Amino acid sequence: MLTYSSAVIRPRPTALLALVAALAATPTAARAQPAPADIKKEADEKMLSLDYQGALDLYDQVYEKTKDPALHYNRGRALAALLRFPEALDMVEAFQREANPELKAKVPKLDEFVAQIRDRVATLSVTTKGGVKATVRLGDVVIGTTPLSQKRVNAGESQLRVQADGYDPIEPWL
Questions:
Q1: CA proximity to 107, closest of 95, 116, 120
Q2: Which of 40, 99, 143, 144 is the most buried (most CB within 10 A)?
């Protein structure tokens, strides 16, 4: 605070607001957005350190900025590591569809990787008589309502539960 004689000198509120607005509008290194290549490099490092969710989040950010089909493969690897095989399969299939032949050639054993993921995915369809709407759970997760058609799920033993208002639940083991 500055003083002159006995008077206190204060900046006028409008001048202070203008200064704050000017500072907020000024680009700084701290506000600069990292380049997609830098984010991708950080995501790759997270994969190597086994932080698969962190890597996936960063790969998703890069994909949103670049729409680079190579990111489908990276995201598929992270999802597979997280045991989210249906989503992983969606990603690697998108990579197979969208990547050019040169890019696909850079991925060793791509077909083998896709086959390994496919082996970990099952397809589930559930219908009810009379168009009754029922909630379908696999384990503790609601995966949809009937009619449920061609829903990809992790393969393996799990508890299926189909529940509709006014009906006893159906709980066959898969």
A1: 95
A2: 40
> What is the C-alpha to C-alpha distance for residues 155 and 174, in angstroms, rounded to an integer?
9
Q: What are phi and psi of 108, to 5 degrees?
A: -65, 140
> What span, in angstroms and rounded, lies between the C-alpha atoms of 17 and 20?
5
Question: Of 79, 108, 81, 107, which Cα lies nearest the Cα of 91?
Answer: 79
Q: Are 143 and 153 in contact (CB under 8 A)?
A: yes
What pTM was computed for the model?
A: 0.76
Q: What residue has token string 């995915």?
A: 121
Contact (Cβ atoms closer than 8 angstroms) between residue 131 and residue 154 = no
Q: For residue 122, what is the enclosing H or E element? A: strand 121-126
Which residue bears the tokens 């990579």? 95
